[in-house]
Amino acid sequence: MHSPEATLYCANSLCQAPNPANHRFCQQCRSPLPKRYLWAVGKEAASLQPGNLLGDRYWCKEGRVLLDTKPGLFPDAASDLPDVVEPYLRLVAYQLAVPQPYALVASNQKRSPDVLLLERAPIYLRSGTDDVSVLEGTLMPEVETVWQAGSGLRQLHWLWQIARLWEPLSHEQVVSSLLNPSLLRVEGGLVRLLELQGDARSTSPTLANLGDLWQRWIPATHASIADFFKQLCQQLKSGHIATAEHLVNVLEQAIEIAAQSDERQTQIATLTDQGPSRQRNEDACFPSSGSLLSFANNNDLVSGSSSPLVVVCDGIGGHEGGNIASNLAIATIQQRLQSVPRLMQFNPNALITELEQVALAANDVIAQRNDIEQRHERQRMGTTLVMALECGHELYITHVGDSRAYRVTSLGCHQITLDDDLATREVRLGYALYREALRQPSSGSLVQALGMNTSTMLHPTVERFILDEECIFLLCSDGLSDNDRVEEYWQTILLPVLEGKTDLAKAAQQLVAIANEQNGHDNVTVGLVYCRVSPNSAPPGAVPASLATDPSIEYSSTVLRSDAAASTLKTQNLKPPERSRPRLSSLWLGLLLIAGVGGLITYFLLGGFSFLTGEVANTPLPASPDPATVPVAPTISPLPSANTRTFTIGTRMLVNRSTPNGETVPISLLPSPASSPAPDVTRSTVPLGSVLEVISQRRDGLNQQWLGVKVCSLSQTATVDRPAAPQPNAQPGELGWVQEAAIAPFVTVNVSLTPAQLGACGNERKATSTETSPP
């Protein structure tokens, strides 16, 4: 099919109105229009022509750049994954540099899928100017094209990123990708691969081959590093630098010298809010909510005496325990890092280890509190963690759980942490594409969080970034990141900060407002780190050529880690067993069988069941003289998931807000199941004691299950229940939508109801199609 102009369909499942591709918001419902540009890989991809519509949804803009015109729908699931896909999946930890599979599509309806579509490819989402259409949807430039325009620090930064990719790509036999100039693209200071290229079976590429490629760039190299770079290439070609570890260490020494020619100013802002549907805020942050602090020259705090540090924690479950866990984590981290200037003396490897130990210390404090209070399974409190620490010309991100960090520049916004959940694990193992893994009911279940188990079972990730350009690091809880709110609103809220049109504190307030208005199901916490880099007045000092030949450097700096700028703990690439790749249904059945057998064994050994999730299942619990104090690893979830209750057409439910920790949370009805309702959408509250009937069911583009409900009756005490409700109570007979996962913990189903409680629903259940929707 051919279409000269792209038509972008609204992601709102109740709207799906067609829109011109150059619109940012739906012209009918005003929902944001996600633009997902994809790169096509495969023999048939070369024959695509502009205007071609692949698979009835992927519009060819130019060359092999395609636009998904139906972003609100999941891509079709592949019956099997070809071998070419596996390296991408197993390199998901490097998603900042390596694109990820989005879908497999057939170029002809009669064929099996023969075109692989990659997301997170180096394709401009905006131009960096007021006219966003200039570069949008075009490929980013090759390294060779922009090499001459880079400063000495920028060029070293590009080389460092390539060097760090050498070992993991070699392991997956795709290191040839780093020797193909057309695949090496750049987005400001970031190196990004267009696609992966398999290595030849006869010979494996060596660092000498890398030296040959780099040597081509010598004539355009910045004067401050020219002699050093020439010597470095010679060392690579001669074999004197024979390991990626050695190469990385040499480049890090050079970066440390080159970075001294820049000045850095940093500003941080934090804000947390309990949200419209929670009675207590289980999130916590450091510095305290509402802080706005400025740092100059990396170490000198204008209003304090430490390096820039931001921490965001999202408490998990237990009897009034989530807020305790998150605040315990903040207090422990603050105490361990109170002498941050001391960390400036550490080399990168030692600092990464120190940050890992800080996370483990916080875990121990919470776990011990759980043990002392004899909390088990769902009663155990825990918390996620995402933390940013700036040291000199580097910034370190420490992460556990599903709170996230994003890196934002004038050219793009990228998620830089991986959620510790089951969906991500499926991708790491090469079992499923990420968007296919998200279809599973328990895809968002966490495999680890602070406080849920002993430190031997916890594996924090530490990622490292060189600061050579103006950027913002956004840290947030899932109250904001859910439903892709960051991807939808970064250009509206964070880009103006980089352009000097608004301030950081206002941006934090706007992000919290978006989370409350567009999500509203959870607490929300935001931490912003705004890094500005500018050359100082003195000319840059030259990096000595002798640095490339110094034998003491080979093992003196950082040890090359097997994750992208990350720790060597269990967030490494996981090696699947040598067998045929199972489909997800088989995998889940296997996991259930293993969990059942393991539970029986544990029952007889310990007198009870221990449900182990994630990598922790591979490590036995430590022995304890008192079985009552042995921590039982829970299925990490603060509330029962929706799939623990059965909701079908005609199900009637009593809203009793009975949660494991006794919370009282208002239930809000929306006019549509869209993940992105318009800002002025009217919401109504279902008070305690009300009765609802399910009249429709639907999944949105994020695979979130929504229930179309009818209000049968209201509680007679509704006016007493929430006298200061921020939104009006629903009325009997009113129709609306609510997320199944949001309402499940707060209702009781299949209960006996009086005629007064049945109210507007009458005595007979009506058979309603799953496609029926409240008007």
Task: Give an overview in words.
With 775 residues, the protein is α+β, with helices and mostly antiparallel strands. It is 24% helix and 20% strand. The chain contains 19 helices and 30 strands. The protein has a seven-stranded antiparallel beta sheet. Strand 5 (58-62) and strand 6 (65-68) form a beta hairpin. Helix 3 (152-171) runs antiparallel to helix 6 and helix 4 (207-215) runs antiparallel to helix 5 (226-238). The longest helix has 25 residues, at 348-372. The protein is globular and about 90 Å long.
Short structural description:
Helix content is about 25%, strand content about 20%. The chain has about 775 residues and is of the alpha+beta class. A hairpin with a 5-residue loop joins β27 (about 690-700) and β28 (about 705-715).
